[in-house]
Amino acid sequence: MERKLFTSLSGDAASQLNDTLSKQGFRRSQNVLYRPSCADCAACISARIDVSAFAPSKSQRKTQRRNAQVQRRATSPWATEEQYELFRDYLDHRHADGGMADMDVFEFAAMVEETPIRSRVIEYTHPDRGLTGVALTDVLDDGLSMVYSFYDPDHPGDSLGTYMILDHIEIAREAGLPYVYLGYWVPGSPKMGYKTKFKGVELYVGGEWARMRDPADYDSERHPLKTDPIAEQVANISLPDLRSPRG
């Protein structure tokens, strides 16, 4: 049974709250910040890439060359029919049994457009195939958070998912931002294994970020006694100081 700890993201302090809680393993979905808090395990582990420690592998360099023709365009968070068509094609091929499988065009638009913080839609276009990838990305005070990304599933050999992460690392480097947040990684999940293939990956475990070790070392996070009581989890969350400075 899935359980989440969440809070509303609104008001003048939305960006500060998002920045602070993202550093503690939270993720944004529209105007809500959440973090898995299941009673039986702690297998959903927040992952990010330390940009300064990253260097592409041989395979990743090939992916960059393979997608050399792809062009990037960053826009305001505005949904289009072309994006939705690509999104539906991606879900139908890759996640037909997932929780987003029934999302209609209005729900998709809400996912993209309902954001109280600084967000961007980053489109990737191929000269022959048109729109080939999209990333909904938040700009944090210490990095880029890839909220959700999808791509053309008809060309798996292009490794577009990997390419978009590699490009976000480059965007962060150009902007002087130290991290790229990837969302959650689950030990043993084949669909999430790609997140472990980037040099410089850090995981948020035990209330702190640390460089990833052997993935097998984290199997214990699935143990039913691994999760702290919910009251203890809440008590250990740090919130931003929103008090106005005294004049």
Describe the 3D structure:
About 25% of the residues lie in helices and about 25% in strands. The protein has about 250 residues and is of the alpha+beta class. The strands form two sheets. It has an eight-stranded mixed beta sheet with strand order 5-6-7-8-9-4-10-11. Strands 1-3-2 form a three-stranded antiparallel beta sheet, covered by helices on one side. It has helices at about 15-20, 60-65, 80-95, 105-115, 160-175, 230-235, and strands spanning about 5-10, 25-30, 30-35, 45-50, 70-75, 120-125, 130-140, 145-150, 180-185, 200-205, 210. The protein is built from six helices and eleven strands. Strand 10 and strand 11 form a beta hairpin. The mean pLDDT is about 90. It has a domain at about 45-210: Aminopeptidase, CATH 3.40.630.
Tally the helices: what do you get? 6
Shape: globular
Cα distance spanning the termini: 50 Å
Low-confidence spans: none
CATH architectural grouping of the domain at 46-212: 3-Layer(aba) Sandwich
Give, in order, the helices and strands.
EHEEEHEHHEEEHEEEH
Q: Name the CATH superfamily assignment of the domain at 46-212.
A: Gcn5-related N-acetyltransferase (GNAT)
Taking all Cα atoms into account, the compactness measure Rg is: 18 Å
And the CATH topology of the domain at 46-212? Aminopeptidase
Q: Name the average pLDDT.
A: 91
- Quickly give the structural class: alpha+beta
Spatial strand order of the main sheet: 5-6-7-8-9-4-10-11
Largest beta-sheet characterization:
8 strands, mixed
The helix fraction, in percent, is 25-40%
Given this structure, which CATH class of the domain at 46-212 is correct? Answer: Alpha Beta
Beta percentage is 25-35%
Q: Count of DSSP E strands? A: 11
